[in-house]
Amino acid sequence: MGLHADVHGDGRVTVLLHGQPGGRRDWDAVVEHLDGTVRAIVPDRLGYGATDGPPGGFGANAASVIELLDGAGADDAVVVGHSWSGGVALDLAERHADRVAALVLVGAVGGTGSVAFADRVLAAPVVGDALALGGLTAIGVRPVRRLVAPSAADARSGEGWWRRWRSFMAEQRAMLDELPGIAARLGDVRVPAIVLLGEADRIVRPSSQEALAAAIGAELRRVPGAGHLLPRERPAEVADAIRHAATR
Question: Which domain does 81 fall in, by range?
C-alpha cells in the first residue's frame, strides 16, 4: 500500500515529511503559510495515520517517497524533513539524487551527535519497549512525551495509540541500525539544502544540526527562542525556508 497524502497548491512539487511520531496534520500551519505557492504533498509516513501497513526505517520510508513521487508523476521534488524524517530526506538525497531538487531539514537528525544516550536506551530490546510504554518517565527524556502523545484522532481508540508506539519503537531502532550509514554518506549530498534549527531545541541538539549543515554545505537558519516543534511553533519561518528552496 502507498502513502496516504494530502495535496495542496500548485507549482514546485514539495514533499513534507513529519517527525517521529506524528502525522500529516503536523504541517497544517506551514501549509497555510505557504498559501498555495508550491504543490505540497503531505503524507502520513509508514506506520502512521491513514497510511496502511507496518512501520519502516529510513530506507523503507525513502522508498515510499519515491513511490509517492512516481504516483504523482513528479520527476523530482523539494524534500522537507522534520526531526527523524531528516534522515529520510538525507537518504533520498544520497541514494536517489536525481529525485531530489533541494532539501529543507527542520530540527533534523543526521549530524554528529544525533544519536544520544536516551535514543540508545529507547532502542534497546525489552528495556526500550518498557520505558516507552511506561511513558518515558526515566533517563531524562520527559520532553519526548509531548511528541508521542496521541493526536485527537488516535485517541479515539487503543489501536491507534498502540500503532503509534509500535512505529516509534521501530524508528528508534533504525536510529542505531541505519542512521550511522546515512551520516557516513553525507559527502554524497550535492543538492541545495537549508538547515533550520530552533536555538532552544532539546530533542535534536543544535550542535548536531550545525554539524549537519557544515557537512552538506547547507544554508543554516537559526530561529531564536524556538524549540524542536518548529512546524507548529514557527510555521512562517518554516514556510519561508521552503519557498526559498523551491525557487532556487
Answer: 5-112+180-246
Q: Is residue 189 part of a domain?
A: yes
The pLDDT tens digits for 149-182 are 434 344 334 447 678 888 989 999 999 999 999 9
- Considering the domain boundaries, does residue 50 fall inside one? yes
Longest dimension (CA), the chain: 47
For residue 118, being part of any structural domain is answered with no
Q: CA angle at residue 58 from 129 to 76, to 5 degrees?
A: 150
CATH no. for residue 216?
Answer: 3.40.50.1820
Write out pLDDT tens, residues 167-224: 989 999 999 999 999 999 999 999 999 999 999 999 999 999 999 999 999 999 999 9
Task: Please report whether residue 184 resides in a domain.
Answer: yes
* Residue whose entry in the numeric block shows the C-alpha cell 521501530: 170
